[in-house]
Amino acid sequence: MNTKTEADYKSGYVAVIGRPNVGKSTLINQILQQKLSIVSHKPQTTRHQILAIHSTETAQIVFIDTPGIHNQKGTALNKHLNQTAQSSSHGVDAVLFLVEALKWTDEDLRAVKVMSQSSAKKILVINKVDKVKNKEQLIPFVEKIVGEFDFNDVHYISALRNKHINPLLAAIYETLPAGSPIFDEDQVSDRSTRFFITELIREQLMERFHQELPYSVTVNIEAYEIKGAIHHIHANIWVERNNQKRIIIGTKGEAIKQIGINARREIEKFIENKVNLKLWVKVKSSWTDDIRAIEALGYTDEFKD
Ligand SMILES: Nc1nc2c(ncn2[C@@H]2O[C@H](COP(=O)(O)OP(=O)(O)OP(=O)(O)O)[C@@H](O)[C@H]2O)c(=O)[nH]1
Ligand SMILES: [Mg+2]
């Protein structure tokens, strides 16, 4: 039960927006000290909107991790990812707009325009400052951005190295309205365990096959059974073509075996139980263009409020 009263507590939603690969998920994981959102060096890692709930003694910040806003046109999946990110900047108390230090691309421009439409408080977050040797270079970089677009505040951080996150949290706190906790204080996400399991498998696929496989690889759980102390999980990996299936399976099944071992380890850490993981690779032609398939694989109606 929530015992906090409005007088001594603040709570609200904060959307984290930016082009792919700027470090949105890394920042959220760092704040929560938990891997809620998978991370990779490949752009467009996040595909689903995820709520990450950060509860402290004085506030509850509900972060919305979003897919990076990108310029790739075409498939229904790509359009859906951009729409997801756009819609999340509305109805929130603050927007964190992430950019990578000294890197400004057309995709950042597209993302900042989306963000500008939001009526929430806007915080510009310059991430990956650990990569910048001469920090003075940051001044003209930031001046140009704040000269063109409206921000209430600017922060310089390294999400990866956990640098200057506390001042950012303090600034977020200032934007929140008074209110009692929105979620139970021990709840960290709106997502199910099954969802995180599919994400942990997808993370291994992205890590190993980032060159060979398209973004369209997806995972669903076919069966989940707990027998005694062991969780038996049977998951399908969906690809679009037979040659992609061959890549994932590898010579004599070596690749899929390794994916399975690594994913099982991550899943065991996450659910704190022993796991027996079975993976199957299945081909569904062009599911990224098929809006019904996108619905079936859970890419819609993601934001529960
Ligand atoms: N050097 C450095 N690398 C970082 C930092 N933050 C994130 N990264 C790296 O940047 C890459 C992308 O990070 P993600 O957190 O997946 O980025 P994202 O914005 O969520 O990307 P999408 O989900 O694709 O939109 C990963 O390789 C991270 O390790 C940072 O502060 N410094
Ligand atoms: Mg991400």
Short recap of the structure:
The protein has helices at residues 24-32, 76-87, 106-116, 138-148, 165-175, 193-208, 242-249, 254-271, 291-296; strands spanning 10-17, 50-55, 59-65, 94-100, 121-127, 153-156, 218-227, 230-239, 274-283. It is α/β, with parallel strands linked by helices. It folds into two domains: 6-175, P-loop containing nucleotide triphosphate hydrolases (Rossmann fold, 3-Layer(aba) Sandwich), CATH 3.40.50; 193-296, GMP Synthetase, Chain A, domain 3 (2-Layer Sandwich), CATH 3.30.300.20.
Layout of strands and helices, then pairs:
Layout lengths: L9 E8 L6 H9 L17 E6 L3 E7 L10 H12 L6 E7 L5 H11 L4 E7 L10 H11 L4 E4 L8 H11 L17 H16 L9 E10 L2 E10 L2 H8 L4 H18 L2 E10 L7 H6 L9
Bound molecules: guanosine-5'-triphosphate and magnesium ion.
Structural class: alpha/beta
Spatial gap, N to C terminus: 19 Å
Supply the number of helical segments. 9
Strand content: 15-25%
Q: Within the largest sheet, what's the order of strands?
A: 2-3-1-4-5-6
Q: So what's the CATH class of the largest domain?
A: Alpha Beta
Order of helices and strands: EHEEHEHEHEHHEEHHEH
Overall geometry: globular
Low-confidence stretches: 301-305
CATH superfamily of the largest domain: P-loop containing nucleotide triphosphate hydrolases
Backbone CA Rg: 20 Å
In total, the number of domains comes to 2
Helix content range of the residues, please?
25-40%
Bound molecules: guanosine-5'-triphosphate, magnesium ion
- How many β-strand stretches? 9
